[in-house]
Amino acid sequence: MRIMQSNHRPQLRRKIRFFLHRWHRRLGLLVSLLLILLVITGVALNHTGQLELDNHYPQSRILLWPYQSLLPDNIGYEGSHGLLHSANGLLLLDEDMLADCSRLTGAAETTEYVLVSCASVWHLLTGSYQLLESFDPAFLSLPEDAQPAVSDGQLVVGSSDYWQKLNVDTLTLEGRVTVAQTSTYEVLPAVNQSISWQRIMQDMHSGRWFGSWGVWVVDIAAFVMMLLAFSGIWMWLSRPGNRR
Q: What is the side-by-side strand order in the sheet with 154-159?
């Protein structure tokens, strides 16, 4: 009876070791790619300051696809001298810098002047797109949805059906007008000015970048790696040459 038990234990141990060895390789291959991603993002996050990850904003559509709902629409206006748009905190005419602009929200052009509205500042330009004046929209007590427009060849500002003439010499609002024409715009690829490399690395490291299911995938992978560690130790200790 003792002989049968002594023979049975090594056979059972070999079967368990064979089973673990087979699944150890399969699971190891399965989590290896995720482990590489975790190592790369972890090392990068550990050197955020040196790499300045919090001050750089990627523009790749692939990297930014989980954040599309957080990125505001980037619009551009085709003026008489080129495409007026904003990028990287600047107001641009094609590729030429005109002024600061976190996000372009509107523009209107007459033969003599161009009025541009950005998220936090408005700019008055000459007809040749030279900057004349920059001012806070609160200076004119404008509502948040106010836009520049044109009425009878004059610049007006307002929203919906309430428009007022803009005196470009004194930057004051004058008489009300009932009809105004706003500029048509085209939607440009969104410019990322808020999602930094640091956030993307953090979301990739935690799995949030892949969506709600990504967090669970990372959790399961972490559990699998723990199993691989325990099974690897057991297989090494269970080898005949390693037992005392």
A: 147-151, 154-159, 162-167, 172-177
Burial of 225 (0-12, 13-18, 19+ CB in 10 A): middle
Q: Are residues 27 and 127 in the same domain?
A: no
**With 70 as the cut, is the pLDDT of residue 234 above it?**
no
For the chain, report the end-to-end CA distance as a whole number of angstroms.
24
Tokens standing for 90? 């600047």
Phi, psi of 176 (to 5 degrees): -85, 145
Taking the model in full, what pTM does it have? Answer: 0.57
Domain that holds residue 134: 72-188
pLDDT in tens, 47-56: 999 999 988 8
Tokens of 116: 């541009």
Q: Is residue 4 part of a domain?
A: no
Strand pairing partners for 107?
Answer: 116
- State how far the Cα of 92 lies from the Cα of 73, in Å rounded to an integer: 16
